[in-house]
Design brief:
By secondary structure, this protein is an alpha/beta fold. The protein is built from 14 helices and six strands. Strand 1 and strand 2 form a beta hairpin. The longest helix has about 30 residues.
Length: about 325
């Protein structure tokens, strides 16, 4: 996705930047404790005055100018002792990796013909309007349809990075090409993946996700530009709040609140020991990358490390030098 600011009121019926700002601000006001430490996408971690690690918050919605690491972050990445990311599939046991692939297949590629047949005519029309064919629709679950429509609506030129993979996967590739050791922060957990994708991919939650996606499809390009702008400026709390709640119904917000523990809080706590190990095992700083929402909140990685006695400082403007 290309980095760019929105032009307010550019066409009738299209959202302005102000609408996105207001939605994000309302969400932060609703749950302020979940959005603290959102002033930067990079945090330097120190002990006894020495930098021991860098936390880099990534974003999973696509590639943009905002996604490419700036010079100071690239320098720290190139000189790091190790890279840690959320999961590394080829480091999982054969059994876990196979189970994960099966779960993803079930989540996206095991449609229920009866459920598809019961979709109302207006849903079919909306899917056709999104550029999907009968063949596309009939091979995807409701969750898969939602993901497909989102990706198509928000996709733009890939820039300098490959399409089809999230940033973390490319960081792993770059690290291995530079002989930087790679570590996973967690083992793949089926329950967590289920929570990510709203449970049953053809059930009530899958239907709700598809309805939400179709409801906002025409506005997604403008919204993705806004997210790029917020993330690129380091306004991680606003980007995350916007992603969580823009055009969300009360039911959508309730589902998000219910899933937060499984997606963020529980995982954050489970990562701390591995992060501390990486930061204390070498003379050079460790580079730790994960979805930027994990930085946020009183239960986020930044707050948890501070509670363990680490000095964690935001790298404002992505500058993490000795004065950061």
């Amino acid at each position: 996705m290309m980095l760019g600011a929105l032009v307010a009121g550019c066409a009738p019926g299209l959202p302005s930047q102000t609408e996105f700002d207001q939605a994000a601000d309302a969400e932060i006001a609703r749950r302020p404790q979940d959005y603290v430490n959102g002033e930067a996408r990079a945090f330097a971690v120190r002990r006894d005055g020495q930098m021991k690690g860098l936390l880099w918050g990534t974003i999973h919605i696509g590639y943009a100018d905002a996604t490419v690491m700036p010079a100071d972050i690239r320098r720290l990445f190139a000189g790091s002792a190790s890279l840690s990311v959320e999961e590394v599939l080829d480091q999982q046991s054969t059994q876990r990796a196979a189970a994960f692939r099966q779960l993803r297949k079930r989540t996206f590629y095991t449609p229920d013909p009866a459920v598809l047949a019961a979709l109302p005519a207006e849903t079919w029309q909306a899917l056709y309007s999104a550029g999907m064919t009968d063949a596309d629709i009939e091979k995807l679950t409701l969750t898969g349809l939602s993901t497909f429509v989102t990706n198509r609506a928000s996709s733009k030129l890939p820039g300098v990075l490959p399409r089809g993979e999230i940033v973390d996967m490319n960081l792993v590739r770059f690290a291995r090409s530079a002989a930087i050791p790679v570590h996973a922060l967690e083992e793949i957990d089926a329950a967590m993946v289920e929570a990510m994708h709203y449970g049953s991919p053809n059930g009530t939650n899958g239907a709700a996700a598809l309805a939400w996606t179709l409801r906002r499809r025409e506005r997604l390009p403008a919204f993705s530009d806004w997210v790029d702008t917020q993330y690129g400026n380091g306004a991680v709390a606003r980007a995350s709040a916007g992603l969580n709640t823009w055009e969300a119904t009360r039911a959508d917000l309730a589902r998000h609140d219910e899933r937060r523990a499984a997606l963020l809080t529980d995982r954050n706590r489970s990562w701390i020991a591995a992060i501390e190990t990486r930061m204390t095992e070498a003379d050079k700083p460790a580079f730790i990358a994960f979805g930027c929402s994990h930085l946020l909140g009183n239960d986020g990685v930044v707050a948890l490390l501070r509670a363990k006695g680490w000095t964690v400082t935001p790298c404002l403007g992505d500058r993490c030098g000795s004065s950061a």
